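We emphasize that the prediction below concerns an isolated chain of 556 residues; any contacts that depend on oligomerization or on bound cofactors are therefore not represented. The input was used exactly as deposited, without trimming of termini.
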Amino acid sequence: MRRDLPVPMRDGVILRADLWTSPAGEPRPALICRTPYGKDSDAAELRLAAKAVARGYAVLLQDVRGRHASDGAFEPHVHEGRDGHDTIEWAAAQPWCDGRVGTFGLSYPGCAQWLAAVEAPPHLLALAPAMAYGRLREAARYRGIFDADWLRWAWLYMAPDTRRHLDLPGPQSVGEAFEAWEREGFEETFADLPLGDFDDLRTAAPYLSQWLAQPPSSPWWDFGDIVERLDRVTAAVLHLDGWLNDACGPRGAQACHAALCAAQGGSRSRLVLGPWSHGVPAVTGGWREGGRDFGPGAFLDYDALVLDFMDEHVRGIPGPQGRAAPVRFFVMGENRWREAETWPPAPLREHALHFGPAGALAQQPPQTPGAGAFDNDPARPVQALPSRASSPAEQAAFLAAHAGRLLVFETAPMEETLTVAGEIRAELFVSADAPDADLVLILQDVAPDGTACLLMDPRAGAVRLSVAEGPEPRLLAPGETRRVELCGLWTANAFPAGHRVRAILCAGWHPALARNPQTGMSEAQSAETRPARIALHHGPDTASRIMLPAAQGARS
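Result of the prediction step, given as a token string:
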């Protein structure tokens, strides 16, 4: 292995990379992974690199601009398009590369691949972006609500290396940062309003101020819109994501797959969706979500999946993936993989569930007008229930702890298995006695014993009422009932006979989502908050409902 190879960018900044290849040094196709986490620190990337070299590839692991061994200033995602393009073309011209290049990586390295691919580097033949967004603006905010996990990400994973570079006080390794996070109770400190008003973040992660200042409608975010530029991508793409991953991931994978199929005719885009949370170990079974045992078949050999794809599209070696359907997805509850030619699988019928009085969720809409209401105080937010907390006791404790601060609706027990696969949508009629409020719709599969498992990350069902109708904010008027459409709640799940569909409505998910002050001001602008009473209306003229895509026609 050759360490810290200097790779020049078009503006003269030098990035550094480690080269993995055979001792003989003969020209080989190259696979590139670009990361902000340290090119020699991720066990999954190092393992895949070693396997790739054994298969006949050269592998380049590179620190992105401003991180670890690379020069320049780090601005998340901003430089990855041009720097990725320049790295791919530089590698293709090296004596150890035969001119054929592919890219791989999960999370930020997955996003970095996309940003490079839409710059159309001529030598890029294939990419495998796993658990990546399709639009950065949607990853930063879920329908107007800032994803506060970015603060945690910056302080724990990004700030230590920045402090080391700039000789700033504070933790200078990820391990030290985690220790300080627990010791100082930063989970709550970082959630204080106004959001991001924390001296250390302003110096060690100054880009967060820019993120908080830019509304989702701002053209500043345009550089991170992948979906709109996929007509420039001619490389083959392997999309991989999980139902329980951060909501921007499955949403991005499916949007990018659909856009590529429209641009390329679908022959060079593959979509794999499993029952996973975030990270390679979630895919391989290194860690598992609680509540349900999906069986050993739920987990995949991530390295083999990526390398088989690269063999086919970079090296031109026919393999098992060449015979696979374009879409492969795992049905939770049924606990098996299905394949389809298109996503969502067709044909579908829509199974509507209507909100009604006394917590009812039924196929027939209520015949008389009604409403259920709950209170939300940003100073006492609803605490997010860990995805692994699915036992009857944990669920009962959560509901009891938040009594009066959420609404719970359930169907009657299923008489026969209902299998859904695709996009769940919701139409909600909502009012509040405050200028603004957030709404979070959480969907669960509830077993007869009370075990309740998520169908997707709760952030998928989050919306700020002031932007529910469009990107430009419009505050609530007194007495106004607003129609809210939620889409992009993607899943595949079988509800066996005896199971129930549960829908929980609340006005926050702390600390994952930033708190809405409910004053009409942004969480980045003001520390002042006010309580609100929020109502969900149901009846003939306000038919609040959920539409489930009942699966038909997908083959096993």
